[in-house]
Write a structure and sequence with these properties.
- This protein is an alpha+beta fold and 192 residues long.
- The protein is 53% helix and 13% strand.
- 16% of the residues are buried.
Length: 192
């Protein structure tokens, strides 16, 4: 790598460290007076560099097209001894089911989630908001203007994915199995 590229990589690293949150490549490019595609290329190089080195305690992650420096998960124990890290939240089956619905159907209202689940989800939605896994992303243009929910960067970080397109696709067979299971549980038959 040539000297100017090394300086640019160091500058990107400094920006990401100082800001502490995910930054869009456009913002980095503006701050460094660079082209966006060059920033993306250098960020990919930096990501590879962190992953290749076993001597580094940090890594660079991509979250919905933004970049952020994070500690490597294998050092959680050491970090928790030093700082008061909030305890990891345990996700019950109800929370995971609700989170899955939001992830795959977003943006979605609480009522739409309840229609899919068949039960009230107020507690589950409130807990997921509290855990910063989902957030309000707008309002539906309908009577009462219900809140629309979507996933957060913390959701991506927690599940180790860089964008929603990384979620596994649900096959048609699985959808049929889910429908059959739901019909059995509800004691009804849905005509298709």
């Amino acid at each position: 790598m040539e000297k100017t590229s090394k300086n640019s990589v160091a500058a990107i690293e400094a920006l990401l460290f100082a800001v502490g949150e995910a930054l869009e490549p456009e913002r980095i490019a503006t701050a460094l007076d660079m082209e966006k595609k060059e920033v993306i290329k250098l960020c990919k190089h930096l990501m590879d560099s962190y992953e290749e080195s076993s001597m580094r305690g940090i890594r660079l992650v991509e979250l919905d097209g933004k970049y952020q420096l994070c500690t490597k998960s294998e050092y959680f124990e050491e970090l928790s001894k030093l700082v008061n890290i909030p305890k990891k939240h345990s996700l019950t089956d109800v929370l995971l089911e609700t989170l899955s619905i939001v992830a795959y159907k977003q943006p979605i209202t609480r009522q739409q989630i309840e229609t899919i689940r068949g039960v009230s989800c107020t507690h589950a939605v409130n807990k997921l908001v509290e855990y910063h896994l989902i957030e309000e992303v707008g309002r539906l243009d309908a009577p009462g203007r219900p809140i629309l929910f979507g996933t957060t960067e913390d959701f991506l970080r927690s599940f180790g994915i860089s964008s929603m397109s990384d979620l596994p696709e649900i096959s048609a067979d699985k959808i049929m199995d889910f429908q059959k299971q739901a019909e059995e549980e509800a004691g009804i038959v849905v005509e298709t």
